[in-house]
């Protein structure tokens, strides 16, 4: 990166993450933000045109095919958006000498490891979505542009479709709910990922040889929990905050992932080891409970359910 305030092209501006990136990246440099209408990942010419037209120093891609279960029957579409279009981004970044920031997922792993996954562990996805995301990572590395591939997990925000919002809605509608108790990870807000991305770009900007930091990073909140414990924690906060839930934490019942019928198999261990990111970029990743509290407060104040 050369400019003091590098021009940034954000793709997928309306994703959970894109919404937060619009805020956080605006402090780094001039920002152009596109949605599906202006940069459709199923239209290669349009995608190339947008990048060549704007000539960014950084391309940030928060667009993705994220329908995990539907991907099982839409393999071609998932690979088009998560792999083939990503190759175009990498090729265009390479031609421009730009950086590509791209997001990936714990679903590139099978979840069989007993400890958190490091960036050096080999991907071994269980489902089509995970395969398409792993292929997207590979294609960026094959093209060889300067990149930050940021894997995160259990992403959520007060906007969009995600586990905490689903749990709160169900707890308002029903007097008891069942939640998977044998899958473990670190719930991570889009807010944290967006702010950390901005901090990473800021750090690259200050370096004489930023290309030395090109690579894959794991970015999640600190700590870990199960979906079941996470749901209980959220509903405890919601109850104390006076949200109109019927299912309080005592009315949450554990089930196994095997008994939760879904088209795609999901990894049971979603824990990602974040030390490389923390050491190289000198960022602090707060415990997951810190942002979960903010989430409930934001939902309560703005009545976002
Ligand atoms: N959600 C998670 O739990 C999670 C976990 C780990 C990693 N990630 C990764 O984090 C990133 C952001 O995820 P997210 O949950 O914020 O995403 P999201 O809210 O599901 O949004 C996906 C975005 O991609 C856009 N999109 C889909 N198809 C497109 C196309 N053909 N052309 C252009 N845009 C298209 C959608 O546009 P429309 O608004 O028009 O539909 C939407 O804005 C993704 O790379 C995802 O793989 C997510």
Automatic annotation (TrEMBL):
EC number in record: 1.1.1.133
InterPro entries: dTDP_dehydrorham_reduct, NAD(P)-bd_dom_sf, RmlD-like-bd
Top-level taxon of the source organism: Bacteria
One Pfam assignment: RmlD_sub_bind
GO terms under cellular component: cytosol
Annotated ranges, domain RmlD-like substrate binding: 7-299
Cofactor: Mg(2+)
Cofactor: how bound: Binds 1 Mg(2+) ion per monomer.
Catalytic activity: dTDP-beta-L-rhamnose + NADP(+) = dTDP-4-dehydro-beta-L-rhamnose + NADPH + H(+)
Listed pathway(s): Carbohydrate biosynthesis; dTDP-L-rhamnose biosynthesis
Keywords: NADP, Oxidoreductase
GO molecular function: dTDP-4-dehydrorhamnose reductase activity
Leading EC class: oxidoreductase
GO biological process, one term: dTDP-rhamnose biosynthetic process
Function recorded in the entry: Catalyzes the reduction of dTDP-6-deoxy-L-lyxo-4-hexulose to yield dTDP-L-rhamnose.
Xref: PANTHER family: DTDP-4-DEHYDRORHAMNOSE REDUCTASE, METHIONINE ADENOSYLTRANSFERASE 2 SUBUNIT BETA
Similarity comment: Belongs to the dTDP-4-dehydrorhamnose reductase family.
Protein name: dTDP-4-dehydrorhamnose reductase
């Amino acid at each position: 990166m050369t400019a003091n305030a590098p021009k940034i092209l954000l793709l997928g501006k309306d994703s959970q993450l894109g919404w937060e990136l619009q805020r956080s990246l605006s402090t780094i440099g001039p920002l152009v933000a596109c949605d599906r209408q202006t940069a459709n990942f199923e239209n290669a010419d349009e995608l190339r045109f947008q990048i060549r037209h704007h000539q960014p120093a950084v391309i940030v891609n928060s667009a993705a095919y994220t329908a995990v279960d539907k991907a099982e029957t839409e393999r071609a579409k998932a690979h088009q958006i998560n792999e083939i279009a990503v190759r175009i981004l990498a090729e265009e970044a390479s031609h421009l000498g730009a950086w590509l920031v791209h997001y990936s997922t714990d679903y590139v792993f099978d979840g069989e490891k007993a400890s958190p996954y490091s960036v050096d562990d080999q991907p071994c996805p269980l489902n089509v979505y995970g395969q398409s995301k792993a292929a997207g990572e590979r294609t960026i590395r094959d093209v060889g542009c300067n990149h930050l591939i940021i894997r995160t997990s259990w992403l959520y925000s007060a906007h969009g479709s995600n586990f905490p919002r689903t749990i709160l809605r169900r707890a308002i509608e029903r007097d008891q709910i069942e939640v998977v108790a044998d899958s473990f990870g670190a719930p991570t807000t889009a807010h944290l990922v967006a702010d950390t991305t901005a901090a990473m770009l800021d750090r690259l900007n200050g370096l004489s040889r930023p290309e030395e930091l090109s690579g894959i990073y794991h970015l999640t909140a600190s700590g870990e929990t199960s979906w079941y414990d996470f749901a209980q924690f959220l509903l405890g906060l919601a109850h104390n905050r006076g949200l109109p839930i019927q299912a309080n934490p005592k009315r949450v019942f554990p089930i196994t992932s095997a008994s939760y019928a879904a088209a795609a198999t999901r990894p049971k261990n979603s824990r990602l080891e974040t030390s490389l990111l923390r050491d190289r970029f000198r960022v602090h990743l707060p415990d997951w409970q810190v942002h979960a509290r903010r989430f409930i407060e934001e939902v309560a104040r703005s009545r976002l359910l």
